[in-house]
Structure formats: structure tokens, C-alpha cells
């Protein structure tokens, strides 16, 4: 296939990888390992709340401030302390056990699974010598996670918000990708992600093409009129790219 693509980048969470269970369910499983019974719904609500609290206090997983390890330990500690109903109080040793176990779970396929069609799409694009990259709001663990999930070798570069100090939808993170790909303004570039604002719109705003995975689109349907570029999974993206024999610019 003769292809005019210069670069295709991917989001990770919700696009290439999916969580095996909710944070509440995963935290409850961790609690059980150490003899503590928790309610998954309560923990999930607590997680969402404290994630937002620490994201406001120390943006981008604590990049340039407290660091990602302390950032996540704060979230974990706050969740368990708030939802713990057992006798006495949780000790720092308890929190350390919870934290270390969760870090391990979210470092491999214990906590993650491949999104449907991820390997097939990456293999198809890689076999056609299309440059692939990652642009993700993620902490520094992403490199090892992609290796554990057998995806890392597909990518020319992996940009994390934590390491770059740039958080989607900041246009500079896409400009960094262009620089790493030695891309010119006339090259066709595509970003694939599952968040309308952070992935789809952000890429379009810097002159890229963009494809959106549908579970994000369902929440923002009124914001977008390019329904032919919304997909249910990565298998449908692969079929679309094969049919189109390389996507032409959405602006043409």
C-alpha cells in the first residue's frame, strides 16, 4: 500500500489500553489481600474525588512538584482512609502495602488489558512503515507499561505529559511530536484517542487529522459533526484506514 501518512500518534488510556476493572473494584481487591473489607462504590466515589483534588493541587501527577509516586500515594491513602470501616485506624504500614500492591497491579496486565483491535491495528501500520508515536497524559511508568503489554516496539517515540511537562490539549505536546518525527507542516499527521477535547479537538486545532473512539464521543455527540470519523473500536479504525488507502486531509 502506497501511503502518504507521515505520522500517527495514539492516546493510551481508553484507546490502546483499557482498565480491567474500575478503580473502586481494584482497590477493594487490594484491600482484601490484607484483610480489609471495603465497598467498591464508596471507594470509586472517593477515588474520583481525591484524583480531582490532587490534580488541582499538584497538576500532571505532581510533575515538577511532589513527583508521581507521592502524588499517587496521596490519592491511595486518602481513598483508603476515607472509606475504611474496620476497627482502629489504618497505619502508615497498611497504606504502604496498599500503595505498593496497586503500583504493581497497574504496571502490567493485572490492572490493564489491550483495547479491542489494538495489536492488529499497530501491526498493520507498522508493517507499512508508518511512523507511530504515543502522546499521552500519563506519568513516567508508561514506558515500562507499554513494554509489559508488548506494544512498546511499535513506537518511534513515547511522549508522556509527566516527562515533557506538557498536558493535552496543549498544542505544544503535538508540536513536540512533530519535532520528534521530523515532520513538516505539509505532512499528513493523525492522532487517535478517546477524549473529544484532549485528543480529537486538540489534534484538529493544531492542523492534524483526528479519529475518535466512540465511548468518548457518546458524551459529546452534539460537539462534533464528523460522525464518519468516530469509531467503536480500533478494529473499525483499521478497516477504515485500509478502505481509504490512507486517509486524506479532513480539511480538503
Task: Briefly characterize the structure.
This protein has 252 residues and is an alpha/beta fold.
Question: How would you describe what is shown here?
Answer:
This protein has 252 residues and is α/β, with parallel strands linked by helices. The protein has 12 helices and 8 strands. The strands form 2 sheets. A 6-stranded parallel sheet has the order 5-4-1-6-7-8, with helices on both faces. A two-stranded antiparallel ribbon has the order 2-3.
Task: Name the descriptors.
252 residues, alpha/beta, Rossmann fold, DNA polymerase, domain 1, six-stranded parallel β-sheet, two-stranded antiparallel ribbon, 47% helix, Rhythmically expressed gene 2 protein, HAD-like_sf, HAD_sf
Secondary-structure topology with pairs:
Elements: E1 5-10, E2 17-19, H1 23-33, H2 40-57, H3 59-62, H4 68-83, H5 92-105, E3 112-114, H6 118-127, E4 131-136, H7 142-148, E5 157-160, H8 161-164, H9 171-180, E6 188-193, H10 196-205, E7 209-213, H11 214-217, E8 230-231, H12 234-244
Parallel strand pairs: 1-4, 1-6, 4-5, 6-7, 7-8
Antiparallel strand pairs: 2-3
Helix pairs in contact: 1-2, 2-4, 4-5, 6-12
Give the C-level CATH assignment of the largest domain: Alpha Beta
Characterize the largest beta sheet: strand count, sense, and whether it forms a barrel.
Answer: 6 strands, parallel
Poorly predicted runs: 216-226, 247-252
Radius of gyration in whole Å, from Cα? 20 Å
Could you state the CATH homologous superfamily of the largest domain?
A: HAD superfamily/HAD-like
Helix/strand-derived category reads alpha/beta
* Mass-distribution shape: elongated
State the total count of DSSP E strands. Answer: 8
N- to C-terminal distance? 22 Å
Percent of residues in helices: 40-55%
Question: What share of the residues does DSSP label as strand, in percent?
Answer: 5-15%
The overall average pLDDT, rounded, is: 91
How many domains, as an integer?
2
Provide the CATH topology of the largest domain. Answer: Rossmann fold
Please give the order of strands in the largest beta sheet: 5-4-1-6-7-8
Put simply, the count of helices is: 12
Protein name: Rhythmically expressed gene 2 protein
Pfam families: Hydrolase
InterPro entries: HAD-like_hydrolase_domain (IPR051828), HAD-like_sf (IPR036412), HAD-SF_hydro_IA (IPR006439), HAD-SF_hydro_IA_REG-2-like (IPR011949), HAD-SF_hydro_IA_REG-2-like_cap (IPR044924), HAD_sf (IPR023214)
GO cellular component, one term: nucleus
